[in-house]
Design a protein that fits this description.
The complex is a heterodimer of chains A (508) and B (421). By secondary structure, chain A is α+β, with helices and mostly antiparallel strands. Chain A folds into three domains: 5-48 and 63-75 and 237-320 and 446-503, 3-Layer(bba) Sandwich (FAD/NAD(P)-binding domain); 85-234, no CATH class; 325-439. Chain A contains 18 helices and 19 strands. In chain A, the strands form six sheets. Chain A has a five-stranded parallel beta sheet, with helices on one face. In chain A, β6 (83-85) and β7 (93-95) form a beta hairpin. Among the domains of chain B are: 31-79 and 163-246, Probable tRNA modification gtpase trme, domain 1 (Gyrase A, domain 2, 2-Layer Sandwich), CATH 3.30.1360.120; 314-418, Beta Barrel (Elongation Factor Tu (Ef-tu), domain 3). Chain B is built from ten helices and 19 strands. The chains are: A alpha+beta (508), B alpha+beta (421).
């Protein structure tokens, strides 16, 4: 056999796995169905001369171990972004990594909120510190009594204990809460809470009042410095720069990457992987296949159903994918005046966008986060919007008119904050969940490869019987965002998957 | 107490309208109109939501002897039945069951088990190939959902025909003669585990040469709405050949003699097991012969092949209680041996010989009036499964637990040539 391992998908985790395996001497072949590498971390031209991060603006936290191992120190300097919240009367609230400056900005609306801000930042950092520890080890095996598993649990337990009594209670109590309840405990200003609550429902079809959205909020802050509540932006060069750097590592280590190469079927023989069949009909024989595709697509579309026990496939069916996010990219003739604002005036407003989604409607008033890609990414004047307005499944289906209406609506909403913007729009590109599914293979347009909620977390991600990257099928592994720790972290899944693969008895 | 409670329940029920409670009552089978008239002892029992006879007479003895000496007629309509049709029907069944369905010929019937992904038995039953793309699966438990779960990516239609299809079992040495009279055709050519389509008094029937008694016998499958004339015709043709409607008590004794296991008695479905130890693999049930290990796919394949390679830890065997030993246990307390009058379904410990440790347990047992032997079906550790191995079995003699000698037997205990001839 020409290759030891085939990796499906040249996304960040697929490439990370490929890089580690290639460095360990495995003959690696990465197959990417799209014409370019990067998967969901792609920066593409959406209008002649205008570029944007098609799906996401941030590759997520790259842990120091991955940066060190793969020589990615250029990506070590993350760029925290600010969040501008249009206020009512007293000017905008601006959340920046500068805790004191943010506090000052809050003072105009609530001295109590301003006073609590530093403490809140510390609280988030403390809880995220625990998640950071949880995310860099393989998922705990709840039932296992193997010494290595017990050590993992022990080290996590120690990490928890190190937080002290108060910290332990904070972790255990906060994670299952709704972000609305958490924010209500801390703050009084509705405008602040509305904008912050979007970070608890980002990319999940939930409202701020849904249980477990506190975890989503915390998850979105893992790896960020104290005070960087508004998130970060991949730098430099847009999200596409990381996969490009990873691909270089793969190539240097002798790995091969083929783009425009779609895998149609993972072939099994004698209870183990025997190879992959490409959409072109070409067959590649290989004993190890690592899928960076989402778990639903990997197990129910790329495999023959008869190769798995129906109970396993049922568990895979039960993974909530539900991509709620619509991306809107505007090509503009001149820079907008609104800055990187977040339009989510209250938590009820955000909750109502979820109400629309859960009933299969497009929200009349979606919550919107504006990001303005730097010139090195966009080339020209571009505004990229995260618009959480709808659901993958709409009662009346997704049509061109649905997309156009969302585009027109958000332009009109932006017009209020950036007067005259409408006249400068050269092109409005709407990327709806079904477009993310068809264009990137992400089931139901889930940018997370499965909602990152408490029931789809650590040892339950993607499903309990595959939480350590090995699937029930000998030779088939998963490494994508749908695995632990998954979306929002860059390369950890890939690194941990590679480690499991290298320590297993792989048949060459 | 029991009587008082049930009468108060019926008192409450009398005040409800009938439409309130259709699902709370056991259903009559398609033959109920006939079986109810024969029911002398009011000894009905529940089977899959239906009422069936435990025995029609006050004692099941006559019914038992009919199985071995003439012909017993059982109403087995409560069996779960599924029709699987379509281009991928064989593929679906091959994913589910352990036998090789694709290789079955039209008109062939396969006894088989089916397993979960860990290779533990969910249920056992038969697959009949009715035509090129139509199969009938019979099962002890509901399996509609499980079949559906396995039908992913396949072009197949699954229909639950449990209530639409009625079934009778005619078992015993005169069964062929009676059926030949009833169908006005020869059944000479109908081989063991094969089927034929014919009709009885105008009702189209499928006759399979199958059964649960280990004797010469047939099962007759028909439209439930047209079932009664078939019963009547069989009784008519069978009376001079000793046809005897029989209930589950007689059947239970016969199936122990035949070494046929019973779900929820001799093994637990992996769907119902509360703990791992309650589950059994086909190998542990000594059903090795039902495994087509070379089939490319079937649920549990990997686990079963691995278990096959290392050897099953348990085996399912016949264990006969030693008469002399049993007699002496009773003699020690001044009694003649007492024997069960019905088959029992409890777990009875089995030990190494000479007072050793427990190495297994019997799950069914009966005194065989025909063989004059005390027979049990048992799970034993594999190294104690060789026929001829001497064991001890727990026997309660005058309220005290004793151990009688017992010997491992090959199954079936009773295997007349006419079964397959």
């Amino acid at each position: 056999m020409k290759h030891d391992v085939v990796i499906i998908g040249a996304g960040v985790n697929g490439l990370t796995t490929a890089a580690y395996l290639a460095r360990a001497g495995r003959k690696v072949l990465v197959l990417e169905q799209r014409a370019m590498i990067g998967g969901l971390c792609s920066t593409e031209e959406f209008h002649p001369g205008f570029h944007a991060n098609t799906c996401i603006d941030d590759t997520g936290w790259i842990p120091p171990s991955v940066m060190r191992d793969l020589g990615l120190s250029a990506f070590g300097t993350i760029a925290p972004v600010s969040m501008t919240i249009p206020g009512s009367g007293n000017g905008p609230i601006v959340i920046t990594p500068d805790v004191r400056a943010t506090s000052e900005s809050l003072k105009r609306y609530s001295s109590s909120d301003a006073a609590k801000w530093p403490e809140f930042c510390a609280f988030v950092a403390r809880l995220c510190g625990f998640l950071e520890a949880l995310y860099t080890v393989r998922a705990p095996a709840v039932e296992s009594t193997a010494p290595s598993d017990l050590l993992t649990l022990l080290s996590l337990g120690n990490k928890l204990r190190a937080l002290g009594k108060r910290g332990m209670i904070d972790v255990i109590r906060t994670i299952p809460m709704s972000i609305a309840d958490v924010l209500d405990e801390w703050f009084e200003n509705e405008t602040l809470k509305g904008a912050l609550s979007t970070l608890g429902v980002l990319n999940v079809q939930h409202g701020p009042q849904s249980g477990g959205t506190a975890l989503v909020f915390l998850h979105n802050h893992v790896g960020l410095p104290l005070g960087a509540i508004a998130g970060r932006r991949s730098a430099p060069g847009g999200v596409g720069a990381l996969p490009t750097a990873l691909a270089a590592v793969v190539a240097q280590s002798g790995g091969e990457i083929r783009t425009s190469t779609e895998v149609a079927r993972i072939r099994v023989q004698n209870d183990r992987v025997a190879g992959v069949t490409l959409a072109s009909g070409e067959e590649i024989g290989v004993h190890t296949v690592v899928s960076g595709a989402d778990p639903r697509r990997t197990f129910t579309t790329l495999c023959d159903a008869g190769d798995f026990d129906p109970d396993f496939l049922h568990a895979v069916d039960c993974i909530r994918m539900r991509g709620p996010q619509v991306r809107v990219h505007l090509a503009l003739s001149q820079a907008p005046t609104c800055g990187e604002i977040t339009i989510a005036p209250t938590m009820s407003y955000v909750e109502r966008t979820y109400d629309a989604a859960k009933h299969g409607r497009v929200a009349d008033h979606p919550w919107i986060r504006v990001s303005i890609p730097p010139a090195d990414v966009s080339g020209k004047h571009v505004v990229s919007l995260q618009v959480q307005a709808a659901a993958y499944t709409l009662r009346d289906g997704w049509t061109g008119a649905t997309r156009a209406a969302i585009g027109a609506n958000v332009v009109q909403m932006l017009e209020e904050h950036s007067p005259g913007l409408t006249q400068t729009v050269l092109h409005c590109e709407v990327v709806a969940p079904p477009d993310i599914e068809s264009g990137f293979g992400a089931t139901e347009g889930s940018l997370l490869h499965g909602e990152l909620t408490l029931d789809q977390f650590t040892f339950a991600r993607p499903v309990a019987s595959a939480s350590r990257y090995a699937s029930p099928m000998d030779g088939l592994w998963v490494c994508g965002s749908g695995t632990h720790p998954g979306a929002g972290t860059a390369g950890i899944s890939g690194r941990l998957a590679a480690r499991e693969i290298l320590s297993s008895k792989v048949r060459k | 107490m029991l009587i008082a409670r049930s009468s108060s329940v019926s008192h409450i029920m009398a005040h409800r309208s009938k439409s309130d409670m259709p699902n709370h009552r056991l259903k009559p089978t398609p033959f109920h109109d006939r079986t109810a008239r024969l029911m002398l002892g009011q000894s009905w029992r529940r089977w899959a939501g239906f009422t069936v006879a435990s025995s029609y007479d006050l004692s099941h003895e006559r019914e038992y002897y009919a199985i071995r000496n003439s012909a017993a007629l059982f109403d087995v309509s409560p069996l779960y039945k599924y029709h699987v049709t379509g281009r991928d029907a064989a593929r679906l069944l091959d994913r589910v069951v352990t036998r090789d369905v694709a290789r079955a010929k039209v008109g062939q019937v396969l006894y088989t088990t089916w397993c979960d992904g860990d290779g533990k038995v969910i249920d056992d039953g038969t697959v009949s190939r009715l035509d090129d793309t139509t199969y009938r699966l019979t099962a002890a438990d509901p399996n509609y959902r499980w079949l559906g779960d396995n039908a992913r990516q396949l072009d197949v239609h699954i229909e639950d025909v449990s209530e639409r299809i009625a079934a009778l079992a005619l078992q015993g040495p005169t069964s062929r003669t009676i059926l030949e009279l009833a169908t006005e055709s020869s059944l000479e050519a109908l081989k063991y585990f094969r089927l034929v389509n014919t009709s009885i008094r105008g009702t189209p029937v499928t006759i399979t040469r199958t059964g649960y008694t280990g004797d010469l016998g047939y099962e007759i499958w028909m439209d439930a709405a047209l079932a009664i004339p078939v019963w009547d015709r069989l009784i008519e043709c069978g009376t001079s050949y000793g046809i005897t409607p029989a209930g589950m008590l007689a059947l239970d004794m016969a199936r122990v003699e035949a070494g046929l296991l019973l779900i929820e008695v001799d093994y637990y479905s992996s769907r119902h097991a509360l703990i791992e130890q309650q589950k059994s693999s086909p190998l542990e049930l000594s059903l090795d012969w039902t495994l087509s290990l070379d089939k490319p796919q079937f649920n549990g394949r990997t686990a079963i092949r691995a278990e096959h390679a290392r050897g099953a830890a348990w085996k399912f065997v016949g264990v006969e209680v030693d008469w002399t030993s049993l007699q002496s246990l009773y003699a020690n307390v001044g009694l003649a041996p007492r024997l069960p009058t019905q088959a029992w379904r409890t777990s009875v410990p089995l030990y190494q010989a000479a007072g050793g440790r427990q190495i297994g347990y019997a799950t069914s047992g009966t005194w065989s009036p025909l063989l004059k032997r005390y027979l049990t079906l048992a799970h034993v550790e594999a190294k104690y499964s060789a026929p001829g191995t001497t064991l001890e079995i727990e026997m309660t003699v005058e309220h005290r637990r004793k151990r009688a000698l017992a010997t491992v037997n090959a199954l079936p205990f009773y295997n007349p040539a006419r079964k397959r001839a």
